[in-house]
Every structure is written in structure tokens, then in C-alpha cells.
Write a structure and sequence with these properties.
SH3 type barrels; five-stranded antiparallel beta sheet; 18% helix; globular; DUF2187 domain-containing protein; DUF2187
Length: 93
């Protein structure tokens, strides 16, 4: 079983009061649509391509291995940037 720490999506203000949400990066684990989770394989302008085989029950679900998810429709549950920050802190000690 995998244990992950949840991270918040960070709202980043843009010019003229428009707010955009943080986008996932390659390697991030995201959750979307009815609790499906997967690993981001490719970042596109408006969406990400996600590998769903990460889920333990993937074979039981009978779904395709990969899917496309719009940036508006997912939450980042584990970020590779968090791993990088933790590694840097360990190296500083």
C-alpha cells in the first residue's frame, strides 16, 4: 500500500486579476473523476496525459492504460517537486 501526503493546489495570481491553478508536472500523481489516480506522463497546454496502471485495482476496472485530463479537472496528490525539495533539505544537513 502506498502512503502519500496531500498537497494543496496553489492559486497563482496573474495580471488583471485572473487566477490560475498550479499545473501538474511529469511524474506527479494526480486524482480525478470519481477517485481515479495516475502518474502524469506528459504535460500539454490544456491537459495532461496520465498513466492509470499506477492504481492497484487497475486491472479490475477494465479501463484504458492512459487518458487525457484537463488541468481544471484534477488535483495533485503527490508532487515530484515536493520530493526534490525534501532531497535538497537532506543534502544540506
Amino acid at each position: 500500500m502506498h502512503t502519500f501526503f496531500f498537497s494543496k493546489k496553489v492559486a497563482t495570481p496573474k495580471i488583471e486579476g485572473v487566477i490560475t491553478m498550479a499545473k501538474a508536472h511529469v511524474g506527479d500523481i494526480i486524482e480525478f473523476k470519481d477517485g481515479l489516480t495516475g502518474i502524469v506522463e506528459k504535460l500539454n497546454e490544456n491537459s495532461v496525459i496520465v498513466d492509470l496502471t499506477y492504481m492497484e485495482n487497475f486491472k479490475d476496472l477494465g479501463i484504458e492504460e492512459k487518458t487525457v485530463v484537463n488541468h481544471k479537472n484534477y488535483q495533485i496528490i503527490h508532487s515530484v517537486e515536493e520530493d526534490d525539495d525534501a532531497d535538497e533539505e537532506e543534502n544540506e544537513e
